[in-house]
Amino acid sequence: xxxxxxxxxxxxxxxxxxxxxxxxxxxxxxxxxxxxxxxxxxxxxxxxxxxxxxxxxxxxxxxxxxxxxxxxxxxxxxxxxxxxxxxxxxxxxxxxxxxxxxxxxxxxxxxxxxxxxxxxxxxxxxxxxxxxxxxxxxxxxxxxxxxxxxxxxxxxxxxxxxxxxxxxxxxxxxxxxxxxxxxxxxxxxxxxxxx
Length: 195
Known about the structure:
17% helix; flat; 6 strands; CATH 3.100.10.10; alpha/beta; single chain; 3-stranded parallel β-sheet; 195 residues
């Protein structure tokens, strides 16, 4: 291959307009830059989020709460169907062998095996995390998922004990005695007699 063949490939390229060529460019002395101002100068560039000098949207939005994107564990995922295609029976699958086969390419915190596809070969798999279905398929094929921890059984909800038979019911309060109404005095009573 040489440069003439590259040119014949007709790679789509937008022709760059020559700027700053004065009257000879065919569009006058300003050459498509307008008249004066920031855009007429050399080296003019703006940040992608620049909004003409007003307060940018990224600074106007509130920023609250915890963001787990920095602290989360980043796994590279591999399906058991990929192990079936790229590994022979009896081989050991680890991070180095996965990189050699091209199944893991980027830097990450570990490898997680997922249950997509079928697995019929006996493999010894070494990974940091497994899907429950993937571990079951590896074990069913006769292999060993090293480092797999089965999830704990669900906790049973505690049931309330039945009320004890010996517990005595609270004693009822005695009824209140009826209130006595004051006797009404007849007119003329209670006056001292004249001697």
